[in-house]
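To whoever is on call:

I kicked off a structure prediction for a single chain this morning and the downstream step that reads the tokens threw a length-mismatch warning. I double-checked the sequence; it's 661 residues and nothing unusual in it as far as I can see. Pasting both halves so you can look.
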Amino acid sequence: MLEIEDDGCGMTREIIENVWCLVATPFREQTTVSKRGTESRRVTGSKGLGRLSSARLGKHLEMLTKTKDGECWQVEVSWTALSKVASLEDCSITILKKNGDELAAESGTRLRIQDLNSDWEDRESGAPENKIDELQEGLSRLSPPFEKLNKFTILLTRPGAGSEPLEIKPSELLENPVYRIEGSFSTDGKLSYRYTHKPFSCAGRTVKKEKRWSTVLEDLKSSVKRARLGETRPSCGPFSFEIRAWDLDPESISEAVQQFDLHKRSAVRNEIRAFKGISLYRDNVLVLPKSENTRDWLGLDLRRVSKVGSRLSTSQIVGYVSIGADANPGIADTSDRERLARGGAVEEFESLLQYTVTLLENERDQDRAKKEPEPTELFAALSADKLVSETQDLISEKASASEVLPLLTRFDEDLQRTRKRIESTFNHYSRLATIGLLAQQLVHEVGNNTSIIHEFIEVLKAHWAKTGQDHESIRRALNLAENALASLQRLAERFRPLANRGFTRGKRKASLRETIATCLEARKQEIERRKVKIDLRLRGHDEVQADPGELYAVFINLLDNALYWIERSQEKNERLLRIQSSPSRIKGRIECEVHDSGPGVPKKDQQKIFWPGYTHRPSGYGMGLTVAGEIIEGHGGKLRILEEGRIGGASFIFDLPQSST
């Protein structure tokens, strides 16, 4: 049999007859709070069907329930007998008065489910371990691995004489995540969060950030339909969250095994698997997931397909989200409790959760990234001069072979480490080498497909205008399609300079003034909306020896970067973007500068921002500065960032050859 006992409030005879014995009563819908002494909590469930679930486990139910005043009742239910009666009027159960001595606590309820419907015991070995293990895993998710939600304790006693109760609680591994983000969205949409990186082998870091609702909307505008997001505040209501994450590559798993004294490497994945994914709690009671099939109710694994490696899967994270029935009325689960009921508030809620995971991934990417060593530094480690010198000294001292061996062993270990670093470095630079090829494919595919889409949109417009069915919904759909098309074309234009390498460098000229004016005109609406003041200080020679498309790509990437971060500055100073040009100290070259009044770039990130794929922007590609830097280096220059910005934010400087005429 299965036995479940709690130390709750118990039930009176009146509650048993008028609530428990009647199916689908509105009792919990009307009685939303359960009180016990000075404590109270919001009750879960409102359909009045939960008690029937015991019929799925066994044919017979015995319930013993006692209230604090000592009243105790025993209820006997035969599900088999109930299923055979011809009329509801003939359905009956037995209620007996008891003294309550069988219950350990002064109040509570004990359920005994007998004549089980499935076999919990392995007939060959006589051990019911598999079913009990599954039960233990299921129970572990009811008590989340977060102290702030631990309102009760669960004890599991396995079959067998002398078996002691085992407390269901998270492991030390789960209490010590490598990556953690915790925070909340307020009623007005303000996001406050703290990110912590705590590696096993070295010091980590902690950052605290806040984002206004307008900033969140701006971050999400390229990935979420604005119609689903409240313009002034979120419609889904306030909620809090905590998400923990681990790396599951072989090296990280080995570190975890050693750190927490685990017996097997598989234990790391098993520890996380019991809680994997994000769990949703309403008033501290688990809402999702209720089964293994709904662990990924947020769709993280499908989202990860487009960016494997950087994005987290459900198998790597353990998280919780806390909502309230009163504060989040629009977030409701379906009747089978397997998912959330679709609606505007739910779609917005899920979008904000995915956004939160993206923030965690971006911070994690920064901590995982490692500075690539210079080639000269790498190859210096290949020299055997030191080994030869030390060996010769030992030989001259008539040392034995056993004394020389440690030198050779150490040199071999150094070579192995150097080999790995060289492989890592060449992988890094090989990615840079393929950017041109990827850019060619991107420009080609986008160009071919967007022209077809554009033609299709124009045909639709003409058709609807001709038939007179120019409905607002049709216009809105076509406008969304045109916006998506324009976004794709802008993406292709950004990479076009790296794809067009067929021309000979140095044979074309471009005007700095004209190019900068074109960039400012292209971003005119964003500049006006952000109320950014433009300060142009262009002196000396105007033309540079560069393709106009390449020069445009350099400035538009730096301009987009500056505009994004200017808006996110917490300072109340004037929003300013300054672009300068002047003769370089190197003869025949022009130095260009782009300064902004944004928050600037932390010193620890000032080299990483030039790496391909490295970005702090939730919807960014991490390629803007890479593209600009590649173009400038192709003209003998270098894109660099000043440690201290000239006007409070970031300052980028580069030089290009001036035209000969």
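Update from on-call: the warning came from a stale cache, not from the record. Cleared it. Sanity check on the structure: Residues 401-433 form the longest helix (33 residues).
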